[in-house]
Each structure stands twice: as structure tokens, then as C-alpha cells.
Amino acid sequence: MTYREGLRAVTGNGEYIDDLPSPPGTLHMAILRSPYPHAVVRKIDVSEVRRRGGVAYTSEDLLRVVKAPFPNALGLPIDYYPFAVGKARYFGEPLAVVLADDVYKAVDLLDYVEVDLEPLEPVVTIDDALRGRALVHEKLGSNVAMRKNMKFGDVEGFFKAADDVVRLEFKFPKHTAMPLEPYGVLASWRGDELYLTANFQGPMLYVYFIARALGLSTAQLHIKTPRDIGGSFGIKYSIYPYAVLAAASSRLAGRPVKWVETRQENLVASSSNGERRGYVELALRRDGRITAVRYHFIEDVGAYLRPPEPGALFRIHGNLNGAYDIKAIEADYTVVFTNKSPTGLNRGYGGPQFYFALERAVEEAARRLGLDPLEFRIRNLVREFPVTVGSQKFYETPTGGLYPAQDYVTVVKALEPEYRRWQEEKRRGRRVGVGIAVVVEPSGTNLGYVDVALDAEKRKYPHSGAGEYVTVSVDPNGVVEVFVNATNEGLGHETALAEVVARELGVKPEDVKVVFQTDTDKLWALSSGSYSSRFAPVVISAAIEACRRLKEKVMLLGAHYLKARRVAYSDGYVVDLDRPERRIDLKRIASAVHWDPGGLPEGMEGGLVATAYFQPPTVRAPVGDRVNSSAAYAIQAHLAVVELGDEGIKLVRYVVAHDAGRIIKRELLDGQLHGGIHHGVAMALYEELRYGPDGTPKSLLLDTYGTPTLAEFVDVDVGLIHFETPAVYLPSGAYGAGEGPVMGAPAAVANAVSDLLGVPINELPVRLEALI
């Protein structure tokens, strides 16, 4: 079957935010941003802009429309608006907007905005934040947003009894997701109702945030996405402040407003992961077993606590033991504010930095004990799955995660031939290093994980959102339509859904129309959207359930039309079991239902449509500090080989062995794995959002950010080893796979460089000049 989205992309027929026709009278928005990371806003004068024919608004104007700040997950007294109010708290924070009929005129008119700012001492580093000499938020009285300590199992007892303890300090940098398409918003009003088109990731919590900020009922808000989105990797979750900014400007101007972010704006003021530093301690037995682990993490969330932060620390809460059978865990977390751009979702949300810390510590522990790093990992892997939910076996982690049964040992051992081969190359004198990382990839986020950031007594309501609605219908011509309220980010979801639904209903994929697009005027759930690798375990499961419900009605109709007592559904036909030669196909049934609803059996409603909501059965609200933070978990083992040449360190070989459950479509799975590997390698060797000592961003262009080109990857030999253990508790049988590579690659590459140079690599990106 043709890759539907791919064909649109390569033939230039995609529909992205800037492709949409603008309504008549649309004004284009340009944003004046703060040139200081921390400054009091004394005065902003836009009169000259207005004199020259432009439209301009300051925070004073915009606050006539924006009624409330955005909420934060910790309930802190912080006023976060889409623009600076009183003072700017990060370089690039919006100060004012200029609107004009032409985007270039709007940008030119920014020069005529007069601004009086009083620079303040910036809070640039985590150490600055902890010292508290300058405060990002005076109301809070501190730069510390959260301190939380959690213990699971007898941590003190295991560490006291340990034969050895390994401690590894680390630092993971701030970096962005770098989607091909940056943010874009088109806002217009019809009376008191707001119509927004933007490249959101899905309805999710946007509806609540935007409506609350503008003082609207959610019934007054209509959000759509274009048919296609040029990537996100999580970053477009954080577009909603700009949606409010455009909506407020449109309300004041009385005309539609359009804004498309530039690449420099994206680098400076868009969402990113937060810098994380701290240490990991492993309690070790002499026989090479890890008995307990301690995490001490300090997270820099930037200037504001933007929901779902501090989620980066908790999204992987259910899998804090990684792939290892570790009996006790302590997690000590501190979250701080700095005068940097706010943080948010980024591919693998919280996973790359977590596994970098854990897998580097595991590597150093193997060396301390004099054990082979691969053998040391295999010795500690999860092997038993003693918990039963329904008919599925699970391993329950100390923090509440439920790992479905897989053969971890076989998956990890699949790397051994490559591992030994490259070790031999090294012994023969080739300047290579070999690194291993083993990760458990969580997929299908349980939104309740964010609650763990709060003490149990402070949680107002239980949360366990992870489900999805899918609607399947059949038109009078027998064409099947599938609707999912999410966004098409180029991941092949249309193609995969068409094939799955076609198999379930016994029709041709060409007869299945897939609408994978956000539209809040249609059915959606709080957890709806494209994120956290939820498509395979959750969305496809909901689609299968919807197909099965539809087939039940089709069989009742088939029995009616065939006048049969017993029927079955097979390959698109309802078959009379007593007289198998008599059968009726789905198209004929659909035609009869639509053309003659008056002829239906009494009590049966017309139409052929079924909607299913699938909530993974393992997902529940947190109990205390324990939560199964994802619907599914899958094992991945990574091997990286780096070589030292005249031009520095180069990746020459990368292998992933994994078990993602049932493989829905191999070509798309392979593409996800390749993309995730490259994304994670870029984190390890190239990319970083750097800041000067005064808090000014230094990564203003692609080359200064460090983004690699295809040239850096064209010679990398990538190998994929697939295992397939279908999940019993998910109708799709599938787990996520696209975020695991970006979680494992930074650690695997760092371990390879450490093996190559014989020095610990505790900070990314790897900078050769600092190591030799």
C-alpha cells in the first residue's frame, strides 16, 4: 500500500499551517521580544508604529482580553502570561506585538517600538538559582519550585549492606527538538467565539488553558489543525501561549491574525528540555548485582513552570529501575527557576537525561567490579514476571510500573555478536570504542504521573487519563471512514490505521479513508493527541475495538437481510452458517442501511457507525507516590561504535535490538527507529542550547546550535534486530518504539566515547577538546 502521507510530502501536496489560505483582512503578527534575560519593563511606547500605519499592542492592551495567567502543576503563586507583565524573565519573552497587512511590514515596524527596560541581575545557572541572590519570581521568595524526596523499598538497608557503592555525577544540557516546521497560528473571532487553527499536537489540555486565559467557555473555543504538521517531537505542545497572544491581538484588532515563527525565534524562545544535573548512586554486591539506586536530580525549568512541568522528572516514574531487577529506589528531586526560556515536552520527555545518568552509572559500576559491561547488564536484567492482570503477566517495579512479560535477556544478548566483533577490532589496534545502553521505553502516558509531583494530601482529584476515542463509519458506497482527534506529524499514522482497519473489516485499504486531525468540535478525550508513543498501544487498540463493535451491528443486519439464524463475519462478508453459500458483503449492507432505514428491524437505529474509547486496563491514578506512569513498556538494547579520526569522533555503527510487541507496519517502525537514533546521537555529539554568563543565548543559528546535517550520518551503518512478543492486554498487541532510540542513544554513545578514550563522559554533548 502507498505511504499516504509520504506521497503527499514528496509531491508537494502537503497542507501545513502556512499553506492555509488566510481569511480576507488577515493581519500578520510580529513579536517584539526582550533583549535581556531579566529586566524591569519601565515603558513601552507603540505610538510611532501606529503613526506609520501599523497596529501594535503592549501588555497593558492585551490584558484587556487576557483575563488570567496560565495555571501550573504545583499551584505556585506565579503569574505566567503569554507576554511579559512588569518584567521580562527570559531573553526572547514577548513584550509587544505589531500587526500589519504584510508580514515583512510588521517585522520592519518592530524597529519603531520604543522600549525602556532596566536590566536586572540574571539567574543563569542552577547554582545561581540555589544561591537565590536574584529571584526570578519575587512572589515565591525563592528560585526553588519544588523539593521532593521519595523512597521505595529498604534503600538504607541495601546501601548499608552493599559491598561497594558507585556514585556518578552528570550534567545533561538544554536542547530543542528542531522540527522541520516551527510554530504557526491563525486566530479569528465570530462574535464571542474564537476559531484557532494551529499546528498543535492534539486537543489535550490546550482547550482548558486557552479558554481559561481568555475568560471563555470551552464551548466558545474551536481548535483545528492543518492536515499535516512538519514534525513536533513534543515541542508543539507549548504553542498555546502564542495561540492566546494571537487570539488577544485578533480580538483587539477586530480582524484575523496570523503568525508563523521564524527559526531564530524557535531556537531562542520556543520550548526545550530543561538542563538536568545531579548524581546517581548504585549499591552493589560482590557478585555483580545492583540492589538499590539513589537519584539526586536538579532540574532547571527556565523562567516559568509551564504545564506539564515538572513532568520531565516524573514521566519515567514507573520505570526508575530501568531494565534491571532493582529492589529499592530513592528519588530526590529539586526544581529551580532561571532566566531562560521555559521548558516542556521533548522527544522521550525526561527519558534521555534519565537513561544517560543511569546507564553511565551502570557502565562505571561494571568497570569498578571488573566485569564486562554487557555481561554485567545481563546479570541484572528483569527475568521474572510474577504479577497477573487479566491474562497478561507483568513485573511490578518498586515505583508502581507494570512491565509486560518480554524476554529481556534474549533481546540484550542479541547485541553480543556485534559487541564482540568490535571489541576484537579494538584489540587489533583500530581506534574504536564500543558502548551499550539498555532502556525500557514507556509509551501511552498516564496523565496521572504529574500528580506525583504533589504530596498525596494536596491532590484535589485523581487522574489516570491515557485513553482515546476512535470512530469508524461506513458510507452508502461502502467506504470506511476512521476519525481520530489528533495530529498528523508525518509518522505514517494514516497509512497504518487504514491497513489495520482494512484487516479488521476485510476490505481493501484503498476503501478506508482516515481523518487524523485535531478538531475540538468533534469527539476527543483529555488525553487525545500525538505524543508519548501512544499511537500503537492506545489509538490502534481503540480503532480495533471500534471495528469489532461495528462488525457486531453488521452481523445483526446481515442476519436480517439473509433471514439467517446464525451468522459469522469473514473477509468483508456476513455468512449464513447454516447455508455457507449464502452471504452478503459490507457494501450491500451499507447501501441498504443508508437507502432504506425504514426497513431496519424494530429497535435498531440507522447508520453504520461505531465509536470506541479504549483506556488501557493497567492505568490507574497514583496511590501515594506509586504510579504505573505509562500504559506500556518495551525493552530496547543499544550498541554504539565510535571511531577517532583526523576530524574527531565519528559514529560508525549503531545497532538496536528491541521487542515492541506486535509489529503493525515494519517500514514505519524502521523509520521511527532510524529517526530516533539520529535524534539521540545529535544530543550526544552535537546539539546544545548554550547561554553566556549574562544569560544571553549563544545558539541563535543552526550552526551555533550544533545541528548535524545528513553528512554526519550518511556513512553510519545502522542495524535493527526485531523481536515480536504481542501484548495480551492491548487489542493492538503493540507497544511504542519511536522514543526508545532517543532515550538510549545519548548513553550508548557516551559509553562508547568513554571506552574509546578511557575517561568518564559525564556531560553532553561530547566535546573532544575538553577530554584530550
Summarize the structure.
This protein has 19 helices and 29 strands. The chain is of the alpha+beta class and 772 residues long.
The CATH architecture assignment of the largest domain turns out to be 2-Layer Sandwich
Whole-number tally of structural domains: 3
Largest sheet: 7 strands, mixed
CATH classification class of the largest domain: Alpha Beta
β content, as a range?
25-35%
Poorly predicted regions: none
Structural class: alpha+beta
Number of helices: 19
Q: CATH superfamily name of the largest domain?
A: Aldehyde oxidase/xanthine dehydrogenase, molybdopterin binding domain
> Which strands sit side by side, in order, in the main sheet?
3-5-1-12-9-10-11
Give Rg in angstroms: 27 Å
* Overall geometric form: globular
Q: How would you state the average pLDDT, rounded?
A: 96
Straight-line N-to-C gap: 51 Å
CATH topology of the largest domain: Aldehyde Oxidoreductase, domain 4
